[in-house]
Amino acid sequence: MNSLKLLPRRIFAFVARDFRLFVSYRMQFVLRVISILAVVTTLFFISKIFAGFTDPQFAQWRDPLATWLTGLAVLNYFMTGFSSLANSIRQEQMQGTLESVLLTPINLPTVIVSSSAWDFLETTFFSFLYLFFGRVFFGVHYRGSFFLAVVFLLLTTVVLACLGILSASFAMVFKRGDPFGIFLGAGSALFSGVFFPTQLLKTYAGPKLGNISLLLPTTHGLDGIRQVLIEGHGLAEVTTPLFTLFGFLVVLLPFSLWVFGRAVRRAKREGSLIQY
Amino acid sequence: MDRAISIRNLSKTYPVPFRRLRAFFRRPVKEPVEALREVSFDVNTGEIFGLIGRNGAGKTTLTKIVATLVQPTTGSVSVRGHDSVDDDEHVRREIGLSTAEERSFYWRLTAEQNLMFFARLHGLSDRAAKQRIRELFSRIELDEVARRRFGELSTGNKQRLAVARAMLSAPPVLLLDEPTRSLDPLAAARLREMIRSLAQQDPPITVFLTSHNLAEVETLCERVAIISRGQIRAIDTPRNLRDLTSDSEMVHITVAAGEKISFTRQHNDDRLDETIRKLQSEGQKIIDIETERPTLLDVLERYEAADERR
Fold first, then answer.
1. What is the ipTM of this complex?
2. A270·B106 Cβ contact <8 A
3. Please, what are the averages of pLDDT over each run of 10 residues along chain A (276 residues)?
4. Which residues of B fall within a CB distance of 8 Å from A99?
5. What are phi and psi of B14, to 5 degrees?
6. A88 vs A78: CA distance, rounded Å
7. Residues of A in contact with B117 (CB under 8 A)
8. Do A17 and B106 touch (CB under 8 A)?
9. What distance in Å separates the CA atoms of residue B86 and residue B91, rounded to the nearest whole number?
10. Closest by alpha carbon to A227, among A152, A132, A155?
11. pTM, whole model, 2 decimals?
12. To 5 degrees, how large is the angle CA B84–CA B86–CA B89?
């Protein structure tokens, strides 16, 4: 049987394993659901302060609660795309289980992809909760094509996964102190427009600092999704963020795979693959 | 005879990461560690082969290179004809590795769930995996703890679970790193018996065993390699290795009168026969005969002492 045919079984093995580990910590799940509800409720009350005061130039921010909730839900997803690959390696290294996993006839890329599968399922659920609580308890309405929003979500996640591959490569060689994580983790909340319009950055911090947001794939992904879900735009109106994300993908995918190959070879040569 | 494992001119030096960069910033730079030097030997199909040596002699590095976890600096390893670097995925289909490392399992999963996960990675269907796990639990006497979390198992049961995991995909080559280290004497004896039976089954399983228990190596292994400071110093049957140290043995005979007769004899000489005949002709009843032979420990000490003198 070839590796491709066995891939679904292997992904299932990791998902089943992680699900069992997840349910062995039941309290954590309950607390996380409660904390999401608390965040959504808090944002609802903050949004009431701005009711009727939104500047007409910020079309996406007419209903700040809807904008924050899409921002948080989507950022949560993006961060998983970015961080779960490196985290999966780091976690197996720290637990000491990476060696036994690598002793099975499975290659390292399959280990990384499969072991982050549960993270995506978990994040999909929790991201959905932001939107669900917003809609059920606070009457937030989304419009536009959900299919197009999902296309943006997937495309941005894949672009961030390329950065995640670079981060995983870094974790393999340097073990800790990943610069991609610091840049994207801290940078996305500040520069991507999760909590406030990116235009404000240019106004208050000048064009140089304001343009940093354009370097982040999360900015374009978030903008595309909000254009679709909040402004109700169709495909013809969202080509700019769509093509920008494709541009990121074309550059980052081959580069990240090349770096990853080199990192694996180096770790095997140094015998440090299982160290953390 | 078919070769299960072929090792040719294998050397491994662990490089120091970012050595030149450290030197550039005038930071202290460690020397690269030479773990293996020009190692060459074969392990035959169906053989139980032992590797002994002190801590840090290179046993773990050698095992890890055979298991494809570490790449050699020079030389090659092939397992049943597959190269451990170029065809590593295929090599991993042919081997099972059991280590004494407890952290290689998921502590919050049960023994059964742990093996199920690894069986799926090996590509076994759920049905085949469940059957195989049942077989192994019964063979290695783990039935009673199958549904217990790994973290709750005794050290001995954790060790046995590691052996069960190595055998999950029924690999033709088993690499066993101190398989009986934490077992009680009875459990250790039963596991040794099982290891012996593996080499006798059809098709036979090749066992590559590393251990600090020299008595175990002597009883189980057909051939033994002695490794010291990354070099293989001797490979032979345990008996021939012992003879390298001394070809004589001390014999103690106790007779009914309580008298003890001791003498030194060369292997295969007639002194023992002659003494027994003489005692019998004198009407003495022999109660006990003990022999003191050099052990593998004597052999190991001899090579270590020679290395230290160098």
1. 0.80
2. no
3. 76 92 86 94 90 71 85 82 79 83 85 84 90 91 85 87 84 69 71 81 81 86 88 88 94 89 80 67
4. 69, 99, 101, 104
5. -75, 115
6. 16
7. 13-14, 16-17
8. yes
9. 9
10. A152
11. 0.81
12. 65
